[in-house]
Design goal:
Layout lengths: L5 E7 L8 E8 L1 H4 L3 E10 L4 H19 L4 H22 L7 E2 L1 E7 L2 E7 L3 E6 L2 E4 L7 H9 L5 H5 L20 E2 L4 E2 L5 E5 L8 H10 L5 H14 L8 E7 L4
Antiparallel strand pairs: 1-12, 2-3, 3-4, 3-5, 5-6, 6-9, 6-10, 7-8, 7-11, 11-12
Helix pairs in contact: 2-3, 6-7
Length: 256
């Protein structure tokens, strides 16, 4: 009997009228899909009323469908699926001129026995909790890393960086523009026993790094559903006045 993967996702709308995040879990079977494991796809859409919700759904569905249909190595399939999602979005924009500003971030991750591959564009995060520490493992395509480098070089202060007006501006996303900046892992990240993988839209940022770690640490033995719920309870507890949509998708890989 193969070991089971424990996974769950949860969402809140925050102060927004629409839910512009979308996610999906897709079990993978070797006999059918060429690989044994789990595909997780998460997106955070943008583009005004209904545009963001449509964008995130389109790219998640297109990514997952293409991954199922294409063949090759996992990195090749992730790369191909990312571009298929980009093409699907561009096709919809060309059909509906009023959605010209529609766009989306995307994280697509494949968890197999003891390994994790991913592709991503935008600022939605993929995090690894291990040994009492949590770290972001995918690239951040917002301006935040650029501003952080300015702090490291002593060009601006940490206080100025924290309130920088461009901090959350995206440098790349799936949109009507050509896709130039994205990430596809060539080498898998080796997963260890008791690891927890979390994908999240940027609405989770309200929780803060210390509280994010605290929630994971205090629920490290809990099922994925409890972890996802705890993280979003933490977001709600912050009572942010302009809370963005927040989505978390949690995966506990099999232990053996």
């Amino acid at each position: 009997m193969r070991p089971e993967v424990d996974f769950a996702g949860r969402q809140i709308s925050g102060s927004r009228e629409t839910q512009d995040d979308y996610y999906a879990f897709c079990p993978l079977e070797r006999e059918v899909d060429g690989v044994e494991g789990l595909l997780l796809v998460l997106a955070d859409g943008m583009g005004g009323y209904h545009g963001g919700a449509l964008a995130s759904r389109l790219v998640v569905e297109a990514f997952a469908e293409h991954f199922y249909l294409c063949r090759g190595t996992i990195p090749e399939r992730l790369y191909s699926s990312l571009h298929a999602a980009d093409l699907r979005l561009k096709e919809e924009i060309s059909r509906q001129e009023e959605l010209s500003e529609m766009g989306s971030t995307l994280v697509g991750a494949v968890c197999t026995q003891g390994a994790l591959h991913w592709a991503s564009v935008g600022d939605s995060g993929l995090y690894l909790f291990r040994g009492g520490e949590v770290r972001r493992i995918n690239a951040d395509h917002s301006m935040a890393p650029v501003i952080k480098e300015l702090v490291n070089r002593g060009e601006i202060s940490e206080a100025d960086a924290a309130k920088h007006p461009q901090r959350n501006v995206l440098r790349s996303a799936l949109s009507r523009e050509p896709l130039k900046l994205f990430e596809v892992t060539e080498e898998a990240l080796t997963l260890a026993p008791h690891d927890i993988v979390v994908a999240a839209s940027d609405g989770l940022a309200s929780l803060g790094e210390e509280d994010f770690l605290s929630k994971l640490e205090s629920n490290r033995l809990a099922p994925a559903s409890r972890i996802a719920e705890a993280l979003l309870i933490g977001v709600n507890e912050q009572r942010a006045k302009k809370q963005d949509n927040a989505t978390v998708a949690v995966v506990r890989p099999p232990e053996n």
